[in-house]
Amino acid sequence: SIIKIPVTRVPGTRRAKALYNNQLGKRRETINTYKEDWFFGAYIGTSSQRIYKLIVDTASSYTWVGNNPDNPYVPGFASEATGQRVKISYGNGAISFTGMTHDDIITLDDVLIIDHQSIGVSDRSRVFDTSLDYDGILGLGPTALTTYISEDGEPIPPIPTVIDSLYNQGTILHAVLGIYLVPYNDWHDGELSFGNYDDTVLVSGVNYVPVTNTLPSSYYWGIDGSVIYRGNTILKPTSGIVDTGNGRIKIASDAFSIYLSDTGATLNPDGWYTLTQDQYNNLGILSFLIGGQYYDLSPNAQIFPRASPDGDISLIIGEQHWISGPQPDFTLGYPFLERYYVVFNASSSQIGFASTHYTHSTSN
Fold first, then answer.
1. How far apart are CA 54 and CA 130, in angstroms?
2. If pLDDT is split at 50, 70 and 90, which confidence band does 247 have?
3. Per-residue pLDDT tens digits for 64-75
4. Which tens digit of pLDDT belongs to each residue from 171-221?
5. Partner of 60 at 20 to 30 A CA spacing, among 22, 46, 94, 156?
6. Is the pLDDT of residue 311 over 90?
7. Which of 166, 140, 138, 165 is nearest to 53 (CA)?
8. Per-residue pLDDT tens over the stretch 12-31
9. Of the residues 104, 164, 224, 243, which is catalytic?
10. Between 187 and 152, whose confidence is greater?
11. Is 57 labeled as catalytic in the residue annotation?
12. How far apart are the first and last CA of the chain?
């Protein structure tokens, strides 16, 4: 069985300096381009009148609301406070939420009903750009991440994620999530598929790899791979993660330095690397070698949407801000998922990749 849920892109604003999708990133940055995220609406509790906008995040595993004071959590008759306080920090810890856990009903897009789902209700958060009206996060990462969310920092028993609950209550037969996103200028909805992947949007088979054993990437949807640019390896075999909450594709600083030198990109006043038209025309193919398969990113897939009226071309490839080593050395943020379909199989601890019509599209 497979249940498909549409996800929507938040409209961007031209020339707006904003905190560009670093809600779940490594540092605060500004960018002179579009601000966007992928989200969908969920009902929480027994009222169908209150809908919450939740960001889709595969690099965290707990679902919470309460970021938007204009749309507070309202306990219903099915809500039960558990007495457990939690705190989740994203990236380097500058971004976080703290609050009380509740068990409640979550309804996703009117078709998926999850009973007795643990959620957090924020009473203190530093997560989102305050100009946006997000309510919280839908955590779709591995269950193991939930053992480290206690406010006092002590490990707690794993808390079933949304995917776990759907599987445990028999709504889906397999603990599988498929994610389909599209490039910015196509303006179609994306899709989450629960229980299996959606082969109607694929143009290739799914190539699976095991979740990496390398810490700390193994706590996430982590994979082993290397990075190639113009046919040359710039990042030797290492581990990285898939993160829909990150608006960039990031590689370790030593690899990024090689890539940046070749592109000739220069730092602009907003802290982003920009290209001239000639430099863009000379961009090579950037590839991730994962499980023996090359996942190529064309020049269009390496830059932000061309949102600026003065024609700025900015790299969407960024750096992890550390030299390759024990940390995740690459992050496949949602721009990668706008080119490749990704399957997360919690039952078999595997991650799969497949091509879509947008893999080699010139759309941007």
1. 15
2. confident
3. 998 888 888 988
4. 999 999 999 999 877 667 899 999 999 999 999 999 999 999 999 999 999
5. 46
6. no
7. 138
8. 432 222 232 333 333 333 33
9. 243
10. 152
11. yes
12. 33
Residue 59 token pair: 């690099």
Q: Which residue has the tokens 């849920």?
A: 5
Q: What is the pLDDT of residue 25?
A: 34
* pLDDT mean over 132-140: 84
- The residues, ordered by sequence, that sit 6+ positions from 49 with a Cβ below 8 Å of its Cβ are none
Return d(Cα 323, Cα 122) in angstroms, integer.
35
pTM of the complete model? 0.89
Active site residue 243: yes
The closest alpha carbon to 228, from 327, 126, 296, 322, belongs to 296
Tokens at 290, concatenated: 């994962």
* Active-site residue identified among 37, 57, 135, 164: 57
